[in-house]
Known about the structure:
Layout: E1 2-6, E2 12-19, H1 36-48, E3 53-58, H2 75-97, E4 110-120, E5 128-138, E6 142-147, E7 150-151, H3 153-162, E8 167-171, E9 184-185, H4 188-193, H5 208-223
Parallel strand pairs: 2-3, 6-8, 7-9
Antiparallel strand pairs: 1-2, 4-5, 5-6
Amino acid sequence: MLLRVDDVQGNARALLVHYAVHAVVLGPTSCKYSADYPGVMQTRVEEELKGTQVMFVQGGAGDINPLFMGRSGKEDEDFRVMQKTGELLAAEVLRANKEVRALKAVTPSIRSKSELLTFKNRWEKDKHVDVGITTVLINGQIAIAATCGEPMHKLQTLWKEQADAPYPLFYGYTFSAGGNWPDYIPDLRSAAYGGYGADVSTHIEVGAGETIMLHHLTNLYQLKGMWRDEPGRP
Length: 234
């Protein structure tokens, strides 16, 4: 999904690309600094959209790897795989950008709420994990849930299904409100079945993912002014 900012003349100045796939086309056989496929995408799109700053943000990619990965150990071959992956995404971004339409807000506004949530460490019971989250509502229509760590895709799906907004966006890997980096954040079912990212390489307590998303939803409805001091419809 795309979030674009235009100037008063209608020219695109910033384009935020939201995509939920690990940036690991290049694997451990490559020791070079690289922005992986997001870097290729950014370069290609900026070449086409002159004057536009293109940025990339991860979604709930904790359990999503690229379909194609460069693992041959041969630098040229592996970089070609990364290049192709980024070019494919760039082509989709450019196609989708043609369909972006400006929102007409009755009352333009940006509201947000940040929280620092404390969870137990799943394995070391005497330790805790502090997770900073930020919920944003733009013009009453674009709802953003920003969460640090590597959340799994079902948490993103939960947000998109339950956020009562025309355009719900989920930004994982986003350090916005302090705390610790929680590593992988599995959904409840994944934590129960285990595996990489679900019990290996995660240390946050079971159920933390759903709790984080419930806080995001609670914050969103607060930003929409829907919590009342007495019974009744908002």
